[in-house]
Structure formats: structure tokens, C-alpha cells
């Protein structure tokens, strides 16, 4: 008989997924550079080069860019301008990297692995190198700074080809699908990242900050990075092992310092000073006997005892200093002093 799960059991299952696993999972699914992925990478690279060539020769794609620019979408649909201003933030490097790094950091803590964070770092590094080099190398100006109608605006010192917002959205949100632990989660996250990056690219076209061809090339650039990540998995694995080795070595050093016994203090030896001939002569004249020089002293470590622990000492005789007018106890006044007649 099948029983329906109660709300309490569902909550327990949700909180169990949030707890840290007792140890690292024995098997973590790491994407491999399969033949299917190589074919997709080759096709995307060919598409990337074709877009660049069509823009360089000022083909129909450049004419389409100018037509979209003259259409001015931000004026045609001005009512959604406020929404697009907020939505385009999903393609900015800083906010998206912080959000995704927070999620992947929790994944790393839960599964005792640094692979999610290292994969994110590797993908962002590849994005900065490839997209940044293409931007600087082609130097295309954006729609707001165009100089000649119908030209491709290449080699004029710009930095908008390909679109960095679009490529960043593809990589940052696509890395969540790349690191998904189940096929079902990978499919859902792939669809979500595709829709998000598509919206970010169209938002830049709407605002007039990018040509349409910039956005198309940005999609291709981000997809190339995601498809090439399996080639860097061995390097990521070696980096993770190296980081854990440094961590274990640092912990062992700290434990060694904590358990190191304190050094035992060694008694200090004091050598007696040899008396000179004059000092020996003075001592003989005063006491009539010659004293031998003092022997070597040793100071034992530790604190001195308190007065209550010391042996009692009672000096003989009275502690009062002698006085000419004072009489010893028991003596009478008459015997001490003469009586004078008067």
C-alpha cells in the first residue's frame, strides 16, 4: 500500500539536502570531450568565424544591423524600458559572478570539493581572454558612436564586438547546467540559461548599446567556452589536489605548533667570585678566623615559597637596640641609680 508523504517528511527531505554530506561523493559526474561535443564545438566555431567574416565584408548582416538601429526599439516600446534596464544586469560580470559563486561555494562546501569554484574561475578566465582579445582586435564601434551609415565600423577603437554582456550571460548561467549533478537538472538549467542569455542579448539591442551581430557573436563565444571546458578538467583536478595538499600541510603545521611541549628551564649556575688578598686579610683581622670562599650556587626553577611555608626562625636575645638609660628586666631602680641626699 502506497502512502502519501506528509508535509513534515517533505520538509525533512528538503533540509537533509541542505546539510553537508559526511564525505565527498564517491562518483562526481565530470563531462568528457565526447565525439558529439567535438562536433558541436567545431560547428559553433565555424559559425563564429562566419559571423566575423560577414561583418568584415559589410554584407547583408551589417545592413540588418543598421535597420534595427534606425528602428529604435527603445522608442517603439518605451513602456518596458524600466524593466529592460534591470533585466540587463543579469549579463553584467560583477553581480552575476557574485550570485553564481555563492551558490557554487555552497556546493563546494556540501560535497567537500573545490571543483565547482575552480570550474567557474576557469570559465571566467577563458571568457576574459577570448572575448577581451576579440573586442580589442576588431575594435568595432557601437550604434551610439557610429560614424558612417552603412559601414561595419570595424577597426575604429571600439570594444563591443562580440557582446560581452551576452557572452557573460551564456557562460555564467550555463555553468550551472554544466555542473548539474543529475541529467534532469542539467536539462532544466540548460533551458533556463539559454532563455536568460537570449533575453540579455536582446535587451542590449533594445537599449541600442550593441548591434544585432554583436549579440549573435556573443552567443557563439559563450557557447564555445562551455563546450571547451572538458578539455580543462584534468587541469582543474590537479589544481584541486594541489590546494588540498597545501591545506593539509598548513593544518599539520598548526597542529605541530599547538602540541609542541614547552621547554624545561635549566637551573642557572652562579660561580662565586674569588676573594682578593686584601678582602681575606680584612676578614681575618675582624673575626680572627679565615673563611673559605663560597661554593657554587644553583637556583632551582620555580617560585619561592611563601612566608607561612618557611621554617620558623627565633633569634636569640632581645630585638631591641641597646640603650644606655634602659635597665635590664628584674633590676631595681635603687640598685641602678644612687640616692642623693637632699
Summarize this structure as a short list of keywords or feature phrases.
13 helices, two-stranded antiparallel ribbon, about 350 residues, mainly alpha, single chain, about 0% strand
Oligomeric organization of the protein chains: single chain
Largest sheet: 2 strands, antiparallel
Order of helices and strands: HHHHHHHHHHHEHEH
Strand order of the largest sheet: 1-2
Shape: elongated
Category from helices, strands and their pairing:
mainly alpha
Structure description:
With 342 residues, the chain is mainly α. 58% of the residues lie in helices and 2% in strands. The chain is built from 13 helices and 2 strands. The chain has helices at residues 7-18, 35-56, 60-71, 73-76, 81-87, 93-111, 115-138, 164-178, 183-207, 212-228, 233-259, 277-287, 333-336, and strands at 268-270, 297-299. 21% of the residues are buried.
Describe, in short, the structure shown:
The protein is mostly helical and 342 residues long. 58% of the residues lie in helices and 2% in strands.
Q: Which helices and strands appear, and what pairs or packs with what?
A:
Elements: H1 7-18, H2 35-56, H3 60-71, H4 73-76, H5 81-87, H6 93-111, H7 115-138, H8 164-178, H9 183-207, H10 212-228, H11 233-259, E1 268-270, H12 277-287, E2 297-299, H13 333-336
Antiparallel strand pairs: 1-2
Helix pairs in contact: 2-10, 5-9, 6-7, 6-8, 7-8, 7-10, 7-11, 8-9, 8-10, 9-10
